[in-house]
Amino acid sequence: MGGGGANPLAAAQEMLAKAQQELAATEIEGTAGGGAVKIRMSGEQKILGISIEPDVVDPGDVEMLQDLIMAAIADASERADELQAKSFGAITGGLNLPGLGLG
């Protein structure tokens, strides 16, 4: 298979690698409780940090704090999913390719 054109598969792989690097460098914030709990997450959905306002820490109601943390993680994760879909969508043509974390 000769030809002077660039390999389209190699170009797509390069674009995917660049998009993955950009996602890794992107920070997303998820919140709950009106911003009382904040989760910082990378575009790859790795938790980078947690911020909790002192007034939501009630030793008598630990369950509420747990719920707020879970809600903030879910919010950040949803935002990361949207960012991934946007970043990879143009490259994959909307296909959900295994191993890209788009599902």
Overview of this structure, please?
The structure is a single chain. This protein has helices at 8-25, 62-92, and strands at 27-32, 37-42, 47-52. With 103 residues, the protein is α+β, with helices and mostly antiparallel strands. The chain has a domain at 23-92: Nucleoid-associated protein YbaB-like domain (Ybab, Chain: A, 2-Layer Sandwich), CATH 3.30.1310. The mean pLDDT is 85.
Topology of this structure?
Layout: H1 8-25, E1 27-32, E2 37-42, E3 47-52, H2 62-92
Antiparallel strand pairs: 1-2, 2-3
Structural class: alpha+beta
CATH-defined fold name of the domain at 23-92: Ybab, Chain: A
Number of strands: 3
- Principal-axes geometry comes out as rod-shaped
Top CATH class of the domain at 23-92 = Alpha Beta
Give the count of helical stretches.
2
How do the strands line up in the largest sheet? 1-2-3
The share of residues in extended strands comes to: 15-25%
Q: First CA to last CA: what distance? A: 35 Å
